[in-house]
């Protein structure tokens, strides 16, 4: 159903685009200005963001900021509709999956034109690069995350299993430790919570095998045999009892973070973005630890990479781009904002801000921030091409097919590449 | 023998009802649990009674939850009035008047039931945004006053067709025009159909998420379903307890409406041939 909305939106967007809004380096208005600012999240984020908005309004009394918050799914439906109808909010919280589809259709402002009010000096170049589409900065990364293994040390201690040396471990070690836990857990606890439901795990696997998912032109270039290996590994985990039975795995993958094996203390090892550990720790109540990914030391270049948790973007048709840039600057560079938001939107990508808030963080937030500094990362993969926003849905469907034995890993690999390429060609 | 069979039948029915109700029961129980226990201990047994979720949920968003309940109530009331007035008149026209193109028009009206909202939402949004109606209840209410809910028009047409034409003719001989036939004869007789319309409009509008999400952008204007969804986010942990507590609160009006209206609902559906 969402696809329909997107398709209609896309069709209209193409016809509606053409003229741009005002210029982002004009003088700030002295008259009252109203900005619309939209984001997704849960109630905690809504409250914190509202506090930041209040601060901003106190500082600039002639600017009124109207926050519009939604949940993830509703957010993209609503954004597609408003952008198509030429009524987009001024400041848009953006995700990597959708960045190029909005940027390439001309819906976002080139932030390079807004440097008068929006400073980006405290961001690493590698971080800024993640917001580039066709050489222009359309989105400013808010927070950074990197893929990791979350281990439940309480469970491992309980079964007297030693924590592996994560500097050198391999995917075989990962499976072996998982197997020990599953045997000790007696059916109630499994060693590993299966991955195969997000783009992160696939990117890591592919990169460790020296390949990439998309080339610079946005074509799917991953070799079939690498993908087949990915799905074979996932199938082996389930078949050997290291991961739960396929039905359980699929059910958990369709649930929320609080329903996962890590959060319910039903799996000892699982793949997560490092920034999710505070939420997981709260949900599980057990002691958790971030480990480096298996296979990193055997691979010639690191599979790990920085993924922006989200971005700030400005609508290309905003009537007040200068004021919008001012707000984004306040969100990204001010210490007042950072003190309120802390790591709610991810460990800050702004390195100065990151250092400033680290001492204020709780145990697990601090662990997430420190993990970012210790892990060795390679260059970020290309931004998900226009049309490939559904890549996670496609991965998930094939993982489910493979787990239920309706497809071999080889068939899944072949079908995945064909389908994804067709989505990109169709956009 | 028969009483034994009856008891058995009832036992089976009660069991099935419990299975169907399980999710609702689980939600009520979960709303009385601390957040972090909700998924760690599924099951219906509570070991402690925690009501703090209700207090927290009520105040978790930018306005107290009562604000969203009031918004929903205003919206629902306006939609009910709109549907009652406009659909009954449209139905009278289709059932009793003769005009050119009646059959094709009727077919087109029925056809609109089949249009998914995703197909019409963008043109509709552009229209309403040019009228400057975004972020008001107007895009959600005004269409109801134009008889756009074809389902109810159809329901009432079927009902009116079931009323004997002799009643109209008798009224006509006594000197009534269409307005008076409609108000004095037809409307009082179609009470069950009107009641069905009220209840369904209530439940559907109360639970409608998508159009309210699209048209109401300011948190001050949010209705219950939109507010409830802003508790949930798949990527971070969610205050499930608060959300379940507020879900229970927002279920109450629907539950009461159904309890009161159930008799009419069944009669309305049984007599309109919408079986």
Describe this entry's structure for a reader:
The complex is a heterodimer of chains A (427) and B (275). Helices cover 45% and strands 15% of the residues of chain A. Chain A is built from 17 helices and 11 strands. In chain A, the strands form 2 sheets. In chain A, strands 1, 2, 3, 6, 7, 8, 9, 10 and 11 form a 9-stranded mixed β-sheet that branches. Chain A has a two-stranded antiparallel ribbon with strand order 4-5. Chain A is globular and about 70 Å long. The two termini of chain A are 17 Å apart. In chain A, 52% of the residues are buried. Chain B has 275 residues and is mostly helical. In chain B, 69% of the residues lie in helices and 0% in strands. The longest helix of chain B has 32 residues. The two termini of chain B are 33 Å apart. The mean pLDDT of chain B is 88. The interface between A and B is large, with 51 and 37 residues.
Give a concise summary:
The complex is a heterodimer of chains A (about 425) and B (about 280). Chain A is of the alpha/beta class and about 425 residues long.
